[in-house]
Design goal:
Layout: H1 7-36, H2 48-57, E1 65-67, H3 78-85, E2 139-145, E3 151-157, E4 160-164, E5 169-170, E6 174-179, E7 183-188, E8 193-198
Antiparallel strand pairs: 1-4, 2-3, 3-4, 5-6, 6-7, 7-8
Length: 202
């Protein structure tokens, strides 16, 4: 038996059908736009370890060669030491390596032209200077010279012995600079402190 639908019920039914049709059209448009437009990929952030490694690569160099005591000749060559002792100091100031070098004389200041003048108040001192970096714990005890005049230095740190060229890193901390018969320039990378280590007997 057919059910008769009144005029008001037909009107409400048409409204509901129209709403469903609008929702279906809007949903289809949204789905089509989502599937048709490719998603832009964001660049992956660079890991912190990679950034730290790139920054550290600028201040590091090749590692020094670690040696054993079996291949080291502990003999002190006095003929080579005598050659270094014959080098004469040619500077204009005081020779720090000679006890006979006279200290530089400082002229005595003249007395004030106004003895009765009011003394000037002392300027307060600033903050204390930063502490000095620790000494470099390496011992320079020998060197060899290759045919191309390049120098290789021997260093000891505790019981470890290293042979290094200019630019090598010892103990992941000390960078070797200029190498000479009388001393070697070493930089402590932890404190940015550069010192010249004198040649010593092993």
């Amino acid at each position: 038996m057919a059910i008769r639908v009144g005029a008001e019920n037909k009107k409400q039914l048409y409204i509901v059908i129209a709403l469903f049709a609008i929702i279906a059209v809007v949903g289809g448009v949204e789905l089509y736009s989502n599937f048709s437009t490719p998603a832009t990929k964001r660049p992956a952030p660079q890991p912190a370890a990679t950034r730290n490694a790139a920054a550290a690569a600028q201040t590091t160099g090749p590692e020094a060669k670690k040696l054993t005591n079996e291949d080291i000749d502990p003999t002190l060559h006095f003929d080579r030491l005598s050659e270094s002792e014959e080098v004469e100091y040619s500077g204009a100031g005081r020779n720090l390596f000679s006890a006979e070098s006279a200290p530089v004389t400082i002229p005595t200041p003249l007395s004030s032209a106004r003895p009765n003048s009011t003394p000037v108040a002392a300027v307060p001192a600033g903050p204390p200077p930063p502490p000095k970096p620790p000494g470099i714990d390496l011992k320079y005890f020998g060197y060899v010279q290759a045919a191309d005049k390049s120098m290789q230095a021997f260093f000891s740190h505790g019981e470890n012995i290293y042979m290094a060229r200019t630019g090598d890193i010892v103990e992941h901390r000390y960078k070797i600079g200029g190498i000479k018969p009388t001393g070697a320039e070493v930089t402590d990378l932890s404190y940015t402190n550069t010192q010249t280590l004198p040649l010593q007997a092993y």
